[in-house]
Amino acid sequence: MDWPREDRPLGDQRADGQQRDDRLASEEVAALHDEHALGLRRFVLGVLRDPELTADVVQTTFGQLVRVGHLTQAESRKAWLYQVAYREALAAGRRRSKEKGTQPGQADGQVDGQTLDWLAAAAVDEGLAPLVQAERVAHVRAALDALAPELSEVVRLRIYQQRTFAQIAKQLDIPLGTALGRMQTALKKLREKLAKWDRDEHE
Amino acid sequence: MNDHHPQSDDLLLQATRYVLEEMDAAERDHFEEILLEDQPAREAVASAVELLVVTHAAHKPMADRPTLRSPAPRHPADRSTAKHPRRFVWWLSAVAASLLVAAVAWMQSRPLPPQGDIAQVTPENEEEQGKGLAQVWARSLDENHERESVVRGLWWDPEMPVDLAEIVVEDRPRFGTDSLAELGEDELAVVPPSWMLTALAAQQEKLLPATDMTEQVEESRQ
Fold this sequence. Notes:
By secondary structure, chain A is mainly α. Chain A is 69% helix and 0% strand. Classes of the chains: A mainly alpha, B mainly alpha.
């Protein structure tokens, strides 16, 4: 990675003059992959909205971990991985924009940023066992059904109908802030339910 | 899913707006500056994606959900049949049965030569009669085959293993027997009858006089 020295992650700044033969053990790399790969994939996906490109970026990130990960502090390794992944994602996004002639941050095939087809593809790449994924989905479905109608309606219109928050506010004849507030409340409740389910699954 | 702090709800909404591309250029640039340094903001983006993916999946219609018996195919080209294999088989069976019924109706509506004419072959109509005889025999074979196919089409269920021997009763070899006497009634139905072979031989003698058709008939009988 050819970054200016002052922009390099901590590991690269300390790489000069260091020996390479004390790289992270493969078991350690595997453990870090098990712990952070899924979160990194989701994070990069949020930046790129492109599952295929995301896979490339995550792979490159762990390649960097193998190369210079031993030069980072163990306690800051997670943040370092996210930082490397983010920079790689930005670079990949710029390359994609140059190739496709689109604006940075705009995924392929999108007209005005409303296409959410990548979410369906991302569900396949979550890396969870099919039954576990099916149970999580069923749990969220139950949580959606339990939401107050005004909350679930905003979620449905935004994620399923793919309307913008401004369009939703206009359709429901409510202020934009109210539409956003309902989405925020719905997300909070869904996140709590999912976190509880995940905790119960691990116990 | 990571546990969160109450003050992170706003961060989650911002991350969701970023992922959904609901930010204008200035907001997006500002948020991306934050992402360069702020780990909670990065994890909020990951959480937003996780919630959006699973919520999007939760909205899928029941018919599109994967089941244990029919796992969802990964290739788009496979989806149309693999998602509903049983429905597809029934649809195919229904179409096949409809086509067969139409074919049988069409065959029956075609004018057949009177049976009496078969025994009264004259030199003038010998060639046409030969073709007609062959058609009659071929048609009788077709109808037998169609009846069998209709039975299979109506009763075949991919979920229920069917022993075809229960439908096509005999398990003896249809061909390869040394003499007609050894053949059962069903086998005789598919062996060209002597009257048809005689008519065809006469027709062939006209076309190929140098060929010994009698030998060919004998060979074909065997």
